[in-house]
Amino acid sequence: MVDAIVSPLVEQLISFVAKEIKQQVKLVIGVEKEVKGITSHLRAIRAVLDDAEEKQVKDEAVRLWLGRLKYASYDIEDVLDEWITARHKLQIEGGADDNALVAPHKKKKVCFCFPASCFGFRKEEFGLKQVFPRHDIAVKVKEINEALHDIAAQKDMFDLVKSGNKSSERPRRVQSTSLIDEEEICGRVGERNELLSKLLCESSEQQKGLHIISIVGMGGIGKTTLAQLACNHVEVKRKFDKLLWVCVSDPFEQFRVAKAIAEALGIPSSNLGEFQSLLKLISESITGKRFLLVLDDVWDGDCIKWEPFYLCLKNGLHGSKILVTTRKKSVASMMGSTDTDIITVMELTEEECWSLFKRLAFFGPSINDCEKLEQIGRRIAGKFKGLPLAAKTIGSLMRSKQIEEEWERISNSDLWRVEEMEKGVLSSLLLSYNDLPSKVKICFSYCAVFPKNYNIKKDELLTLWMAQGYLSAKQNKEMETIGEEYFSILASRSFFQEFEKSYDNRIIECKMHDIVHDFARFVSQNECFSMEINGSEEPNTINSLDEKVRHLMLIIGREASFRVPICRVKRIRSLLIDNSRTSCSYFNGEILEELFRESTSLRALDFWGSYDVSPFWTLKIPRNIEKLVHLRYLNLSCQNIRKLPETLCELYNLEKLYITRCLYLEELPEGIGKLINMKHLLNYRTDSLRYMPVGIGRLTGLRTLDEFHVIGGGGVDGRKACWFESLKNLKHLQVCGIRRLGDVSDVGEAKRLELDKKKYLSCLRLSFDEKEQGGERRKNEDDQLLLEALQPPPDLKELEIRFYRGNTVFPNWLMSLTNLRSLVLYGCENCEQLPPLGKLQSLEKLSLTIMRSVKRVGDECLGIEIIDAFPKLKSLTISSMLELEEWDYGITRTGNTVINIMPRLSSLTIARCPKLKALPDHIHQTTTLKELRIWACELLGKHYRGGTEKTGLKYHTFPTS
């Protein structure tokens, strides 16, 4: 994991020598030599990091050494970041060349401050409060080199082996067999029956090739146990002529696996020669026989490596199967299992966990004679969170403990500190962890910053990874894409669970199993910390908030008044405040000013407020926010902020600024154009913004601009404001919203915007609201012309149109959006008839809200001469359609062909449609609908209560008030 920090640092330092030292401080004697010394030390350390990572689990001294190295690396990173930032600042503000940055005889003397706190030195020792010329870097570089020299020398104390010289032999899990005592198994009835049905299914007999079934789940969840249960079932034994069990494990060795298969077939060991001859013997032995081959604990799904096995196994009788157990869903897919042939093993219920624990922990006297121990035992079992391996490990431990005090000690302790858990569960999780690339390891350990059972938002997590520099763009891949890949790696290995998905099956949120969370805390060496503040008293955990913490999350309760002394953690790099439970901010200007002054290493600062934030409480952002020069991610959402300080524009590294639902924010800083690294400006529902500053047009790297506010008069100085057509410069936009289109008087402005040429644009939100109220409303025809001029690119995925006043929402370009997945029409009150939306073949989500002129939804919505209407639609919402009386399609055939309407619809919501009497026939006939919500629909609600016999659908009806 430390390698993920050190390796990029080595490359940065090499670049530092080449581009900075040689050009800018070449007259300072010895600087280049010192920096090369730092690079050399880091390279020597990097060579033994793999061995150190493995040894730290058992060796406290190695773990402490790695900690010192990591903290030193952080400080080097800060120094480099500040140097480079200072250079960028001068280039932006003064247009100076590199030589002008340090030459003391030039007109502008450039000073730059490097933290003397690097590598454990106190600021006071070096007069850090002073600012000194950058050519004095020689002194600092020398101190850094000496500190790293000591760390590099210490590595020799631990007999660390270089990566190239280390034996390739890796620890494997204990070899499994097909043998099992079924009486010792708890639960798994549903999974066992599902697996048996797949193994015994006759329909698969006609399938070409081998039928491959996979069992997927986290380490210790019971995959092998489930496979053993199936193999020992009488029907399975009767069906298959040969039952073969091979424990594959990691690393995957073709010859070893082939030899194990041959031995399971009873081939004499004297005949087990070369790999090719083994495959031939296997092929001959299974010819004409129906076999079941279990490949337990597969880590490597490389098709090329497995292909020789598939070729030799194809001579088995039709109906032969392969059963794979793996921690990685990606391996299951690579091995040839389809989604329907993958069984995901979930946690046991709490009662099943207790039952398993009880069988192992209690012996001799009856459980009835151990009532006190049972009460304690149930508390212990609750800590396992459904993980069978944990229940078996601690259950076996408690068998030797019959004293109540011993049980209480285990109950009150952190299970991770129990030695038996380290040997059992820890070793199991380490197998998965060690299999991760180093850069993914550090991403995983960062997740310990969230509390247990926390709903982790995927996009937020990826943003935090980016802010810490864990995602390095490479070749044509952007950081967001790499983050998605890292997340998928962790999800496929069961480090994440309980996924919440969007309408298009994208993961939105997830959780971590409690024991996996404990493991993340373990490998992060307590760098990550979370704390819940519920009252006015100091939490007991506050003592754990020491200088080692680099990433901190605070959950603020409704009654919280105690202020956590955040500023004492001066080197903190992430500060996340969940303030959503209270209407008052946890911060005030005084606290923020101290935070900005002391915690200058922050990369991510998030203090999302409450949706019901009080309008009478204003948060003022201090001017000294400019000190956070490393900041990449800033979230001020749902705060009552009236103005952002101009000094915010000194944060040249800022990549993502969240000001969502800052309802009272009146203006953005004029110098926002200096934020050259800004990629995402998320300002949704900044309703009070009067204009966008002119600098917005210079942020050519922007990917997200949630709301661009068109100038609407009101005394705005045109020299300060960014005009509508300035959006033309933002060629990389992926998400764009435009508000106050009602104030656009010239359709030519919209045409000059050339939205259709923004090839990366995937989401577009158009709102025809107006800034000025009470004036003469423009004509409906103006909206129609304007909407026609705002033609998006043909690959657009999401479209939202709000407060459009035209009589139709059918611009000529709408039906050309063949890849459109989501469409929202909101407040289009003059629209009397829906366009033929059924012709949008990719549409998955449709929302129609406040369209008060629509009285009927009928054939016009399907389209002419269409066979499949809304073929991919999954989610449909019809809301506040106060005049809607009828929803029915008179035409259900095209010639002799029946029109297939919404064949994939799974969620339907009807709200505030008081005149709607009934749902169309295709809704009654659907077999895919899982959820129907009817709210405040008096006539409709009477007909749909409880469900129907035909579909078994559960209807949810809600009263008007």
TrEMBL record:
UniProt keyword terms in alphabetical order: ATP-binding, Leucine-rich repeat, Nucleotide-binding, Plant defense, Repeat
Domain NB-ARC: 198-362
Domain spans labelled Disease resistance protein winged helix: 449-520
SUPFAM superfamilies in UniProt: L domain-like, P-loop containing nucleoside triphosphate hydrolases
Residue ranges of domain Disease resistance N-terminal in the record: 5-105
Any GO MF annotation of the entry: ATP binding
Residue ranges constituting the R13L1/DRL21-like LRR repeat region domain according to the UniProt record: 725-849
Protein name as catalogued: Uncharacterized protein
UniProt key word Nucleotide-binding: yes
One GO-annotated biological process of the protein: response to other organism
